[in-house]
Amino acid sequence: MRVEGRIKAAVIKLTSCSGCQLQILNAEDEILEVTKRVDFTHFLELSSDVRSGPYDIAFVEGAVTTPEEVELVRSVRGSSKYVVALGACATAGGIQALRNLASTEEFKKIVYPHPEWIKTLDKVSPISEFVRVDYELRGCPVSKDRVIDFITQILAGKKPYFRREPLCMECKRKGNICVLIAKGIPCLGPVTQEGCGALCPTYGRGCYGCFGPAKDPKPEELVKALVRRSGLSKDGAVERFKYFTAWAKPFRKVVGGE
Ligand code: SF4
Ligand code: SF4
After folding, report:
1. 3-state class of 220 per DSSP?
2. Which terminal Cβ of the chain has fewer Cβ within 10 Å, N or C?
3. Nearest to 126 by CA among 7, 44, 250, 245
4. How far is the CA of 231 from the centre of ligand 1 (A)?
5. pLDDT one-digit tens code per residue, 121-144
6. What is the rounded end-to-end Cα distance, in angstroms, of the chain?
7. Do 98 and 242 contact (CB within 8 A), yes or no?
8. Residue 28 confidence (pLDDT)
9. Which CATH superfamily does the domain covering 7-155 fall into?
10. Ligand 2 atom closest to Cα of 187?
């Protein structure tokens, strides 16, 4: 059923580069239309006029890396009808979760003159490891069209739906020549969720997996295929997974996380 009247939305930042919330502001052609129905009552990148919940939708950007962020994301969950994980950091831990593959204590010693002042969790985590997440909008950064589409579907009273096919399907629909088969370029498209418009393969590069695992991916099989097709060593093929969504559960095992 169509949602009547205005709804309240929040955009909450955890550990992130703010690139995903910037994508919402980048939707210049649509955002004014959206704000006729949506009050962004907490969106610091938009306005310093911040009001507390409850919210109809809380978009949460960023990974959980500190005890304060655990409290924050739990409190946002408690005051929101829908919690939406926004982008690779919130859905998979993001690039900063690569530190989970080594010792946080060692990194602290190398980077900071006073490591004892740094209060951080031992592991970087997606928000779903602490709270129930209603929807995930993937990508690094998230696609602004998907955010607008998501809000439009909510306002229309629909249960938001997005395809979760592997990127190869999107790539083929665009008529691209496969860079893995034709040129031996390593590509994560067979195990990555579509949604970016097959941007990298369209420009002759292999996919880096920004949108995270597709439904039922078989990353171990892709490692074998990358060795066969692109001439990488097994370690080289595994390295290919160590980018934006390496800590997503189906990829975590491949990169030696758990
Ligand atoms: S997902 Fe990428 S663009 Fe979005 S906040 Fe994280 S690092 Fe930035
Ligand atoms: S280029 Fe990559 S995404 Fe496109 S069909 Fe080939 S393996 Fe799949």
Report:
1. helix
2. N
3. 245
4. 31
5. 999 999 999 999 999 999 999 999
6. 43
7. yes
8. 87
9. NADH:ubiquinone oxidoreductase-like, 20kDa subunit (3.40.50.700)
10. 2
Euclidean distance between CA atoms 83 and 79, whole angstroms: 9
Residue 19, ligand 1, Cβ within 6 A: yes
Kindly give the distance from the C-alpha atom of residue 104 to the centroid of ligand 2, in angstroms, as a whole number.
35
Q: From CA 212, how far away is CA 245, in angstroms rounded?
A: 5
Task: Give whole-number Cα distances, 99 to 1, 14, 35, 114, 236, in Å.
Answer: 44, 17, 38, 19, 19
Q: Ligand 1 in contact with 133 (CB < 6 A)?
A: no
Q: Residue range 228-256: average pLDDT?
A: 95
Q: How do strand 135-137 and strand 38-43 relate by DSSP bridges?
A: unpaired
Query: Which residue puts its alpha carbon closest to atom 2 of ligand 2?
Result: 189
**Tally of CB atoms within 10 A around 168:** 21
Nearest ligand to the CA of 177 is: 2
DSSP letter assigned to residue 175? T
- Residue 243 one-letter amino acid: Y
Delimit the domains of the chain by residue range. 7-155, 167-252
Rg (CA), the chain: 19
Identify the H or E element spanning 41: strand 38-43
Ligand 2 midpoint to CA 12 (Å): 34
pLDDT at residue 78 is higher than 80: yes
Tell me how many degrees the CA angle 186-210-250 measures, rounded to the nearest 5: 80
